[in-house]
Amino acid sequence: MRILVLGGVGWIGSIITRILAEHPEVDEVIIGDLAEAKAKKLITEIGSDKVNFQSVNVTDHKELVDAMKGMDCVSNATWYEFALHVTKAAIDAGVSLTDLGGMPDLTRKQLALDKEAKEGGILNLIGCGETPGISNLLAKWGADRMDSVDSIHIRDGEYGKDSLDWLQHSVRTSMDEMTKESTIYQNGRHVNIPPRSGSEIYKFPEPIGQMECFYVPFEEAVTLPLFLGKPVNTVEMKVTISPELVHNFDMLEMFGLTKAEPVTTRGGVTVPPIDVLISSVLRMKVPPRKGRTYSCIAVEMKGTLDGDKVQRSMSGLMEDVIKWNVDGEGYKTALPQALSAVMLAKGETKERGVLPPEACIDPVSFLEDLKKYGLKVRDSIKKI
């Protein structure tokens, strides 16, 4: 099978490329990117003749469609703002696609293409990374084992990384997570929440332990109420962010430096303040890691089972992958994307359209596959 990885030299894309290159059922991995020098360096590091490079500009519709044709599946690891354009190209190319998701508004726009994707005979599996992705499948796995579901609370935690390390992985995405309103599903309707709000101390499985979490914009609040298979009253998600970083962004916002509206400088240059901020962050030096890092996605659900009110707690923990020098967060995001690309390429998913993981993936078998790659999955339930 042939799989095209768009953005295949980026933080997540390069890990997807490595996983697919080692997969015994994959015959060829094509890195679709504009960064040819970085791609050739990655190919040399991987050392497999299964990996090749093709220059692909995802903003050029015809070029993108032509690159997709002849592929068994496309994995989209580009910046999330390209997701809608890539979805449309996949429909025109007639090739199934899996991506890492976008912000809530973009997810709604992708879902609106469901009919076109069905008519085109493809599946666009949206949001199949860590969060969204593993979080959705844990929620689906739990919901299938409960009589009713009232609330779903998702928490994403990390330990051992400098805050700037997290921020610099995908700067534009991280900036949007820090500066855009979050969407939660509450009392049966969607509500917008101010950025970096909802401070909460949450206890993750060891060795992460207690960490402070804040609201960030993620897609689970959009898709789970639609595709969980059971009614749900509340869906919300928070991420561990250092309080110092939150404070810094509060100050930057106060000074207007997180705004996208252009301003004109004294020298007559017109530029969005956030573009200057992003460029500055990219130039900052991140302190080297002092030890192992850990990443965990946790899902807590409240509902009923056998007439009792219960709380189900599930989690997936990953640590660094030493052989590639990648952290648990990156690996845990790339792994579901790579495995779902193989699944789509093999034709194992018969659904067509634009769907999230909880709507078209068996959570039991998929979580078992993730466990084979090192994801430590936990599940417990108690009466409340």
Description:
With about 375 residues, the chain is α/β, with parallel strands linked by helices. The chain folds into 2 domains: about 1-130 and about 330-370, NAD(P)-binding Rossmann-like Domain (Rossmann fold, 3-Layer(aba) Sandwich); about 135-330 and about 375-384, Dihydrodipicolinate Reductase, domain 2 (2-Layer Sandwich), CATH 3.30.360. The chain contains 15 helices and 18 strands. It has helices at about 10-20, 35-45, 60-70, 85-95, 105-110, 115-120, 135-145, 165-170, 170-180, 220-225, 245-255, 275-285, 330-345, 355-360, 365-370, and strands spanning about 1-5, 30-35, 50-55, 75, 95-100, 125, 150-160, 180-185, 190-195, 200-205, 210-215, 235-240, 265, 270, 295-305, 310-320, 355, 375-384. The strands form 4 sheets. Strands 3-2-1-4-5-6-17 form a 7-stranded parallel sheet, with helices on both faces. It has a 7-stranded mixed sheet with strand order 10-11-12-7-15-16-18. Strands 8-9 form a two-stranded antiparallel ribbon. Strand 2 (about 30-35), helix 2 (about 35-45) and strand 3 (about 50-55) form a beta-alpha-beta unit. The radius of gyration is 20 Å and the shape is globular. The model has no long low-confidence stretch (mean pLDDT about 95).
